[in-house]
Amino acid sequence: QQDNFKQVIAHAKEYGYIFSSSEIYDGLSAVYDYGQNGAELKKNIKEYWWKSMVQLHDNIVGLDAAILMHPTTWKASGHVDAFNDPLIDNKDSKKRYRADVLVEDYAEKINQKAQKEIAKARKRFGDKFDEEEFVNTNPRVIRYKKEEKEILERLAKSLTNEDLADVKALIEELGIACPESGSKNWTDVKQFNLMFGTKLGASADSATDLYLRPETAQGIFVNFANVQKTGRMKIPFGIAQIGKAFRNEIVARQFIFRQREFEQMEMQFFVRPGEELTWFEKWKETRQKWHESLGLGKENYRFHDHEKMAHYANAATDIEFNFPFGFKELEGIHSRTDFDLKAHEKHSGKKLQFFDPEMNKNYVPYVIETSIGLDRMFLAVFSSSLQEEELEGGTTRTVLKLPAILAPYKAAILPLVKKDGLPEIAQELLDDLKWDFNVTYDEKDAVGRRYRRQDAAGTPFCITIDHDTKEDKQVTVRNRDTMEQKRIPMAEVKAMLAKEVDF
Ligand code: ATP
User: Fold this and answer.
1) What is the distance between the alpha carbons of residues 102 and 478, in angstroms, rounded to a whole number?
2) Is the minimum distance from the CB of 262 to ligand 1 under 6 angstroms?
3) Cis previous bond, 236, omega within 30
4) Record's superkingdom (predicted)?
5) Are 277 and 413 within one domain?
6) Are the C-beta atoms of residues 269 and 371 closer than 8 Å to each other?
7) Ligand 1: distance of its center to the CA of 163 in Å?
8) Is the CB of 330 within 6 Å of ligand 1?
9) What is this structure's pTM?
10) Choosing a second label site near 442 at 20 to 30 A (CA), which of 7, 74, 163, 371?
């Protein structure tokens, strides 16, 4: 697994997807830059989300709020007082860790043991394998699952009660060692606020303390009345937003999974009080379908209902993804009650209510939130698409099987040779296609090598122009995933691409 993860990171760099930030200065920890292909993939993920959430829903509209917000926002939201992570130091290595992440990683290792047993049994029983029955009857798997659940429940309870001594006790009882040094010599657990501070104004005495937003959601809540009134929105309705968020994360590892500067794609859905749990279930289902529509593999997802609830929520679930380092949170769905709007009413003195004509009364709406990290989605797509394939004849190829709709380039146009007028025809085709699709051109090396290069870069189609093209006006289309080649009229390439990379 660790090797697999290293390969993902190396491949992301080699093919221009992700670089360390300010790499020439040796990088900045937990901050990353997206390269020429990464910027395209990221943009395509955003578009896919925005189209599904905003364009396809009559009652959801977009918003683009500023990163800097009035400082009272963060008092009202609870972030000043409660946006804390429990930290623990190892006395020998002097390294600092998030106590909850240490325990979660330990629990994940137990889960991996269960998954191994399941995989072994699947191999043994083949088609006859009934996973559900196996999980419910195999004593080892039952024991692992029980152990994992008990640990997570105890952690959740201690965190909810802010019982930091018990979090430490749990780490000691489980015998969790420092990942760096192997030492089990831990300090007490302490809380640490994750918000990045900054200053507004030039002179030191008149400057106001601000925070870089740690989530995009609050920009939506403070604009609730603006959007509702000017858009004449009726409950139920939603506001969606994509934007940067900043957290001074202590555990800076796992590549783009946990960054200090990242992007969120969030949607807050406003509903009648009392109807929130029905909508919560609906949004769980809708979001699950969204993920499944990309075809990354159903088995790579799992729902994790929360026992540990944030102070504002009355129901919460995580959609977890099977990242190269195990199942971890990709998206959160929360029923946030009327906590945020009520808190902003209280701190601002402004009404944040809706007059419901059917009920003939005013109320503060309840909120269902769907919140997904764009960078985590990027990692999910990228890591599950990267495959090493065995080919006939004992060779292998590296292929990045990105969903075509998300791929940076939809097609590469390749003249078979660099002469005989073939580059000119290729260029003509490229000039025609580029108005509708992001396409690339490559004439260097033998065509087989160019195919491999495009496979590894994630380009779903290669379109080759050869000598026959001059006569029959046909081109060879090679499919990245099946490696099948077929000849089609050049005039049909555009329609073929439209069909294959359509929403
Ligand atoms: P975690 O427990 O992993 O720290 P969280 O529960 O604090 O995450 P939320 O506050 O629910 O995360 O944020 C919503 C989403 O934003 C997460 O599901 C995740 O995809 C993304 N996210 C949160 N923190 C980061 C980060 N530091 N880097 C990248 N993405 C993040």
Assistant:
1) 46
2) yes
3) yes
4) Bacteria
5) no
6) no
7) 22
8) yes
9) 0.87
10) 7
What is the tens place of the pLDDT at every residue in 74-117?
A: 999 989 887 788 899 999 998 889 999 999 999 999 999 999 99
Query: Is residue 317 in contact with ligand 1, taking CB distance under 6 Å?
Result: no
CA distances from 391 to 45, 50, 388 (A): 30, 38, 10
Do the bridges between strand 261-271 and strand 366-373 make them parallel or antiparallel, or are there none, so unpaired? Answer: antiparallel
* Atom 25 of ligand 1, nearest CA residue: 258
Instruction: Let me know if residue 177 belongs to a domain.
Output: no
Q: How many residues does the chain have?
A: 503
Q: Are residues 3 and 65 in the same domain?
A: yes
State the DSSP code for 331: E
Nearest CA to ligand 1 atom 9: 332
Cα of 380 from ligand 1 centre, angstroms? 14
Report the C-alpha gap between 409 and 329 in whole angstroms. Answer: 29
Q: Which two tokens stand for residue 91?
A: 């006395």
Q: Domain containing 205 — which CATH number?
A: 3.30.930.10
Considering Cα of 201, then 204, then 206, then 208, what sign does the dihedral take?
positive
Beta bridge partners of 191: 86
Q: How many CB atoms lie within 10 A of CB 74?
A: 19
Strands (E), 113-272: 190-193, 197-200, 208-211, 237-246, 261-271
Which residue's structure tokens are 């080699």? 14
Share of the chain above pLDDT 90, in %: 84
Ligand 1: which residue has its CA nearest to atom 3? 329
ipTM beyond cut 0.90: yes
Cα separation of 69 and 224, whole Å?
Answer: 15
Whether 153 is covered by a domain: the verdict is no
Please indicate whether residue 249, judged by its CB atom, sits closer than 6 Å to ligand 1: yes
Condensed to tens digits (0 to 9), the pLDDT of residues 308-333 reads 677 778 899 999 999 999 999 999 99
Domain region containing 266: 1-70+200-291+313-318+332-386
Q: Indicate the average pLDDT of the chain.
A: 94
Q: How far is the CA of 257 from the centre of ligand 1 (A)?
A: 8
